[in-house]
Design goal:
The protein is built from 9 helices and 17 strands. It is of the alpha+beta class and 460 residues long. The protein has 2 domains: 226 residues, PmbA/TldD fold (2-Layer Sandwich); 216 residues, no CATH class. Keywords: Hydrolase, Metalloprotease, Protease.
Length: 460
């Protein structure tokens, strides 16, 4: 087997390389069995990428990356050992297995350890392969072309208005990767994926009145990216809108989270219902399955089989079959987000979420951003968040924010240097609307989210 890494510019030999990684994983599993392991799992990956950064019309960095990794985990009963390497020489692979076994022999028994149950493993199609959900779109992009795209993006933004006097630069990146996960249940899963992005950040104003803002586009296929010039112009519009912020009187107001920051609210929910936080008793949503958390019209669905979904997969990080299901239905928490280890710690069964969730959709009950602004009438539109002021145990929420003050359904002026505060349980319960303006740049697909009221600490 060739030990060369995949090349971002090479002919597509990915299917052959996946087969080679699958064969390598089987050899490693055989070594683990021969060493006496009762169970074992192997992860193999190869990645290649290119990224460029420019600033003020000049190239700052050009980086080409190539990485590989082999991870081996063995179980001797309920004792676990893990070791990894990037060296594919046979002596290195043998040493990695030996090291994992040595670690396992000196660890304590853990009743929750071990592979996920064999009968939960995903099953491939008739051809022995799993659906890739249209995730493989390598971009034949060389450094010169990438630099040209980044320069065009930044130039479109800088040329949009003379008030844009500076730039934090523009970037273009492309990457592709292969991964294989195999275990001693006989499961072998092989996946290919690509990821591309273009972004720009600009600075307007002078001295203490400078404002920074930006925009970006990400996609699995290059054809789905926004045009570089449109990204630059969008970054300019957002930066100019931030100029001349005014203070805001401290008070209690309706708060509208624009789509790109609204998904952070869903992220806080996921953190609270994930197995690690639950079995450590570090969540404000302990024992909450079956409990109403949101209004009765609010739903969150997991969609692991979306074409070109950012987190689409037929199986999770343990080989467990994924499935479409509700996380929130009719406002009620339907389940937790569990892998096999956390599930066993809680006396439950894995939900097929080892490694995270697979594409969440939050259906809208309202129109786009303008409709939500009119519905809010008077309040705060949040477009940026800062800090990590969320207490996972109590749900208390306090974060720095920036955005715009809204009167009579229209944006009046920018605001920054403010803090928004509340408690996540109350915030979830007082959601009034979810917009149809979905931000497609994430596996959490939500529009803007309007909350009935939050405490806003302003500069007055």
């Amino acid at each position: 087997m060739s030990h060369a890494l995949i090349d971002v510019h090479s002919a597509d030999d990915s299917a052959v390389r996946l087969d080679a990684l699958a064969a390598l994983s089987q050899r490693l599993l055989d070594r683990c069995r021969a060493a006496g392991a009762t169970q074992a799992e192997v992860s193999c990956s190869e990645d290649a990428g290119l990224s460029v950064n420019v600033r003020m019309g000049e190239v700052e960095t050009v980086e080409s990356t190539r990485d590989r990794g082999i991870g081996v985990t063995v179980y001797f009963g309920k004792r676990k050992g893990t070791a990894s390497t990037a060296d594919l020489r046979e002596e290195s692979l043998a040493a990695t297995v030996d090291q994992a076994c040595a670690i396992a022999r000196f660890t304590e028994d853990d009743d929750a350890s071990g592979l996920a149950d064999a009968d939960l493993m995903a099953r491939p199609g008739a051809d022995g392969r799993f659906d890739e959900y249209d995730a493989w779109h390598p971009w034949a992009l060389d450094a010169d072309a990438a630099v040209d795209l980044a320069l065009a993006c930044e130039a479109a933004g800088r040329d949009a208005d003379p008030r844009i006097a500076n730039s934090d630069g523009a970037s273009v990146s492309t990457s592709k990767g292969l991964s294989v996960y195999a275990n001693s249940h006989g499961f072998v899963g092989a996946e290919r994926g690509s990821h591309h992005s273009i972004g720009c950040a600009l600075i307007a104003g002078e001295g203490e009145h400078m404002q920074r803002e930006g925009w970006y586009s990400v996609a699995l296929a290059e054809s789905d990216l926004d045009a570089p010039a449109s990204i630059g112009r969008r970054a300019a519009e957002r930066t100019l809108a931030r100029l001349d912020p005014r203070p805001l009187a401290t008070g209690s107001y309706p708060v509208l989270f624009q789509a790109e920051v609204a998904r952070s609210l869903i992220g806080h929910l996921l953190g609270a219902v994930s197995g690690g936080a639950l079995y450590r008793r570090a969540s404000f949503l302990l024992d909450s399955v079956g409990t109403p958390l949101f209004p009765d019209w609010f739903n969150i669905f997991e969609r692991p089989f979306l074409e070109r979904g950012f987190q689409s997969s037929a199986y999770d990080a343990e080989g467990v079959a994924t499935r479409e299901s509700s996380l929130i239905e009719g406002g009620v928490l339907q389940r937790y987000v569990l892998g096999s280890y956390s599930a066993r710690k809680l006396g439950l069964q894995t939900t097929g979420n080892a490694g995270g969730v697979h594409n969440l959709e939050i259906p809208a009950n309202a129109g786009g951003l303008q409709d939500l602004l009119r519905g809010m009438d008077r309040g705060l539109l949040v477009t940026g968040l800062m800090g990590q002021g969320v207490n996972a145990v109590t749900g208390d929420y306090s974060r720095g924010a920036s955005g715009f003050w809204v009167e009579r359904g229209e944006i009046r002026h920018a605001v920054d240097g403010i803090t928004i505060a509340g408690n996540l349980k109350q915030m979830f319960a007082t959601i009034e609307a979810v917009g149809s303006d979905i931000d497609p740049r994430s596996h959490v697909r939500t529009g803007s989210i309007l909350l009935g009221r939050m405490t806003v600490a302003g500069g007055e």
